[in-house]
Amino acid sequence: MQGRMMFQPLLISSLIEHAAQFHADTTIISKNTNGSIHETNWLEVSENAKRTANALAALHLEHGDCVATLAWNNHRHLEAWYAISGSGLICHTINPRLFPEQLIFIINDAKDKAILFDKTFLPLITAIKAHIPLVKNFICLEPFDADVAKALPEVKFYDELISGQKPDYVWPTFDETTASSLCYTSGTTGNPKGALFTHRSTLLHTFAACLPDSLDLSANDIILPVVPMFHVHAWGTPYAAAMVGASMILPGPGLDGDSLVNLIDEYQVTVALGVPTIWQSLLAAAKQSGSKLTTLKHNVIGGSACPPSMLATFRDVYDCETIHAWGMTEASPLGTVNRPKAKHRKLSVEEQAALRLSQGRPPFGVNVRLVNEENGTHKLPQDGETIGNVQIKGHWIIESYFGKEKNSLTEDGWFDTGDIASMDADGYLHISDRAKDLIKSGGEWISSVELENIAMGHPEIAMAAAIAADHPKWDERPVLIAVKQPESTVTEADILDYYEGKIAKWQIPDKVIFVDAIPLSGTGKMLKRKLREEFGNVLLGENA
Ligand code: AMP
């Protein structure tokens, strides 16, 4: 017998409708590309999203067409992204830090019909324009600008385009499994691959993201998504903020530590989200300015492993609870989140601190298992010690990549993440590496993340990457590539000594190489592949 409850498809438009009706005057602060501040609220965002939807319809874009955005986190981007998905188009958020060849590839692969871009990215657009013939509309997310109009004569300006439109658009209703947005993975090998999200997967992910045991978001929060909207939807925050009616501070292009500290203090931010490299510069800026980040109740760190020293600094110096989360583009992105359970209250302070180091446990909606090999199906024990390949399954996990017929799952329906971890009985996942970053020394695995975490605990190290270097006897041995804190005189011997007693002797790196900077990917992760290319041979010719 069928149940007798209403059925409403889970659509992204319902989020903005809800925010406009029940959180109309909740503030959204947005930093423009010229650095000026724009203040708006959920009602205005919703009305402008409807104006934009009318404007897009007038451009003869059709249901299911991809419309790209190449933009920072700002209010026009937010309006446009609700307009695009809400009206049945697919919002393709592009990472501007990709190489031009990759940009051309993904824009053509997605068959984008229009691109909405911030003025910052005008040079990128003019450079690739000749190679993206399917894009018929270039919309600059600004008021009229003579420089932009001169460089790109066919450009339309967002403010002009929507000013003539009425906010009378009625969001269409369609199947909840319709595609809503598209993100490409960074593509460290080969071309980037697209993850195509549905309205349903996005809404279910949003419910889970807001939960107290996830990102713990509410109408009482002022959220600063430092993580860009082009990095897996800023980890879902623009959707989550609308769902709970939170206030948002959109930082625009100013992602340096000083700008972020100022935003947190000026707008009393309660929650901020970003990758560890962002927090690194924010902590340095806060120390320099003497800010205590008083309003920051918690910060979400993910995208790469959060070094224990960073967690301790937020807790002890800033009284800020770090929520360490693990995820990936293919998981929308939330996979696990580190929040304690009631039983952990009994633990000592040290034990609690140790528990908070892992990447956490899955919320309802994602299932996680460890298996014996990549794409394997033999399940390993959940004992907190056994290390295996992490596979996931759930309502917001990818089935197949955009444009690929074949599904990307194991024969029993799980997605292999390419990550290596242990998991305890409660589901707390401890990521030791990407499979390809593990260091295999004489047949034994060494976790590069663990070596990096220890190095980052040294007060004179600003950033560190551990890589596998080829070795004549042991196949591979760890080498640490490190950036010193400004004016530090720390030596290789000091760092190697620092490892003593913290890990087994044979796991201590063979060499420490100091560099001025570690190359970062478009989403702020250390590019270990580049480091391996450069330093992978440094141990050859040496005797063990
Ligand atoms: P992306 O799809 O670009 O967000 O990259 C996803 C990958 O980032 C994951 O498969 C992990 O290897 C890595 N990652 C994300 N969050 C964490 C974390 N908290 N700790 C360690 N690695 C992480």
UniProtKB/TrEMBL annotation:
Keywords, comma-separated and alphabetical: Fatty acid metabolism, Ligase, Lipid metabolism
Record-level GO BP terms: fatty acid metabolic process
Listed GO MF terms: ligase activity
Pfam families: AMP-binding, AMP-binding_C
Ranges of residues in domain AMP-binding enzyme C-terminal: 450-525
Domain AMP-dependent synthetase/ligase: 17-402
InterPro entries, per database record: AMP-bd_C, AMP-bd_C_sf, AMP-binding_CS, AMP-dep_synth/lig_dom, ANL_N_sf
Top-rank taxon: Bacteria
Record family assignment: Belongs to the ATP-dependent AMP-binding enzyme family.
NCBIfam families: PRK06187.1 (NF004837)
Protein name as annotated: Long-chain-fatty-acid--CoA ligase
Provenance organism: Acinetobacter shaoyimingii
Phylogenetic classification of the source organism: Bacteria, Pseudomonadati, Pseudomonadota, Gammaproteobacteria, Moraxellales
